[in-house]
Design a protein that fits this description.
This protein is an all-alpha fold. It contains 5 helices and no strands.
Length: about 140
């Protein structure tokens, strides 16, 4: 998996996050735009997580460096927790509840969006450079044959 694809998905998620926060901050009540953004965010996030689960974590988890393998395992477990929080956020906040409990929704949205933002920054700093290095070193190894 090309690291650029994962980074582009991060950029898309950060852009959607910014748009959602802007709508939340500007709106006095929920709008159809917020509902639409939540679903777009979900689609990008879930596709991104599936790619990480399929490509990133298995390669890093099998690394010969035990610290890197442990880091990958920790990140994978933590991301699962964040993914569950996102899914709970989507389930717990249908449009009618958003309307009734707008202030609480805004607080919940900021919490999960900030957690995802922090996670993206950690991945970009800690995980992705190591993944890129492993992929690069694997590409330069002679193939058996």
């Amino acid at each position: 998996m090309d690291i650029q694809t994962l980074k582009e998905e991060h950029r898309a998620l950060l852009e959607l996050r910014s748009q959602m926060l802007a709508l939340i901050d500007d709106a006095d009540r929920p709008s159809t735009q917020i509902a639409s953004l939540r679903w777009r965010f979900s689609r990008v996030l879930l596709a991104h997580l599936a790619r990480e689960d399929k490509h990133l974590y298995p390669l890093l988890g099998a690394a010969s460096d035990p610290k890197l393998a442990a880091l990958a395992t920790r990140y994978e477990r933590e991301m699962g927790n964040i993914a569950h929080l996102w899914q709970a956020f989507i389930t717990d906040w249908p449009s009618d509840r958003m309307s009734r409990e707008w202030s609480a929704f805004k607080q919940a949205a900021r919490f999960i969006l900030d957690a995802l933002h922090t996670r993206i920054l950690f991945e970009e700093r800690d995980l992705y450079p190591r993944y890129a290095a492993l992929v690069s070193s694997a590409a330069t190894l002679p193939r058996a044959g």
